[in-house]
Every structure is written in C-alpha cells, then in structure tokens.
Amino acid sequence: MIDEDGSKLGTFSVPDALARAESKGLDLVEVAPNADPPVCKIMDYGKYKYEQNKREKTAKKRQKVIKIKEIKIRPKIAEHDYQFTKRHIQKFIEEGAKTKVTLAFWGREISHIEIGQEKLQRLANELADVCIVEQPPKLEGRNMVMILSPK
Predict the structure, then answer these.
(1) Are residues 88 and 142 located together in one domain of the fold?
(2) Rg of the chain's alpha carbons, rounded to an integer?
(3) Claim to verify: residue 56 and residue 86 sit in the same structural domain
(4) Distance between CA atoms of 30 and 45, rounded to whole angstroms?
(5) Rounded to two decimals, what is the model's pTM?
(6) Where in the sequence is the domain holding 46, given as residue range(s)?
(7) pLDDT of the chain along its 151 residues, tens only?
(8) What is the secondary structure of 20-69 as a DSSP string?
(9) Counting Cβ atoms within 10 Å, is residue 138 exposed (0-12), middle (13-18) or buried (19+)?
(10) Nearest Cα to 48, choosing from 61, 62, 25, 29?
C-alpha cells in the first residue's frame, strides 16, 4: 500500500487498508492489480480524475489538427483548368492544410504514365515557393498521388 504523499506503507489486508483510507477521508485505489501482492494507493479519486481530465483538455487544446485537402486532376487537363486547380492548391496550403493531388488515368491513358509525372512535377515546381513535396508522385493502381505540405 502507498500513502497519498507517495511513501510506502507496507502490506495490509483489504479490510485494514480500507479502514486506513476511510480514517483519512480518502479512497483506496488499486494501481497495479497484476503485481504480487496487488498495489493500492490512498488518494482522493475524484480529485485525481478531475486533474486527469484537465490535463487531457489542455493537451487537446495545444495539439494542432492537420487537415488534408484532396484535388483530383486528369493527364489531359486544359491549361485554364490547370491554373485554376493550382490556385486552389495554393490557397489550401496558405491556410495550413496539406494537399493530396491525385492524377487519375482512364482507359488507355495508363500507358502514358510519364505525362502524369510531368504534370505533377510541373505543379510541384510552380508551387515550390509556398510548399514542399512531402510524398513525390507515386503510382497507386490507376491513380498517381503526390502530397504537398506547407513550408
């Protein structure tokens, strides 16, 4: 059994340990049930749960949620559509979101993978001032995927 200040009290029977905890107005909490003998601690369990929830909330506030936006394009994308898509990706990255660019091959387009690689490489080069390539273009089935993240 461990006291509320962390000092070891020794081995007690369950009724004796409960009586000791109740005399101090605290709870008897089992901290290591698999140990031989099981280890219990005298503490204010309500206060412990409250502090634990408070720590979790502050940790949740401090963590940064990373958004991933996805843009789908084709190898035969028109120049205007390409520029429009590029502006969208740039906007996403300036907002702090990672962007997954998926280039989808349809039908016989899959035989010209180099066209898709050129499109994605061009996109990465033109956006190099605002983002970095986290994952270079990689073929996954009939899709080529590249992930861009803010600098």
Answers:
(1) yes
(2) 29
(3) no
(4) 11
(5) 0.57
(6) 14-61
(7) 888 888 888 888 889 989 988 998 999 999 888 888 889 999 999 999 999 999 999 988 888 778 899 999 999 999 999 999 999 999 999 988 899 999 999 999 889 899 999 999 999 999 999 999 999 999 989 999 999 999 8
(8) HHHHTT-EEEEEETTSSSPEEEEE-HHHHHHHHHHHHHHHHHHS-PPPEE
(9) exposed
(10) 29
